[in-house]
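Posting this for the archive.
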Amino acid sequence: MLNACTQFSKLQIHDKAYLDDQKIEESYQKANGLQAKGENGEDIIVKKETLRLLHDIRQRLEKTSGQTFEYAIVDSDSHAHLLMSHDKKEYVTFSMQFLDKHGSDPDILAAVVAHDLAHIADKDTGDAQDNRETGFFVARQVISAALSVVGTPIAGYAASAAMSGAEQAAIAQEEDKVNPVGMQWLLDSGYTPCGYIKLKQYSDENESLGSPLKFMGSHPGESSRAQMAQDQIAANPKIVCPALPPSQDATPTKAGSVATPPVDQLPREAEQRAATP
């Protein structure tokens, strides 16, 4: 049981820092970066360009959504972004690795914040997600152990797999619920949905290249959000996404631009999850 507990996602975080709002504002006014000390002593630095974007994104999205939140940063190879609850506050949290790659892209940062705010509004907070993960974990262990005793080890394994499927279904249902809310808040705040398409492409590139950056595709519902973004762009010709960096599978079009593969030609997330042990 204790060994299995290491599967809990947030136990894979090496260090974390909850950013102080006053220091964020002071650094923003001075056009400086922000340095924070992690709980385990690590120096966590937010570059000034990233800090400026995060500050402005929060102002606009809090006004649109009516939700309040704080920012946190984690050192983790297994997360892109996540929600954490701390001292009765909700934190939209980015990994240092994610900000190193995307910290200067307002499309991506705003897309992440809008989506996570939709989770907060639906009471699917950091604590709620932890409780769900723990509940399914305990249920898997209890049912699997019981069936292994009265039945066979194979029966116990099958029951555990069924519970894992139920957990994925619950997560997918929540994602389907909050995806359109986050998308609407993003648009109402004056941002484009281009960030969701960019994230999907980066995730696919890392997967095809066997990249160790697993956090790039760690948040569920990525394909659905990318498809929603493409639908919004198709319905509104005024939305123009910047050309994405060329990838090994990208098809050159005009000079300086790249055609992004349609989302429906990419493997479905549900199929990927089902194929994952």
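The chain is about 55% helix and 15% strand. The radius of gyration is 20 Å.
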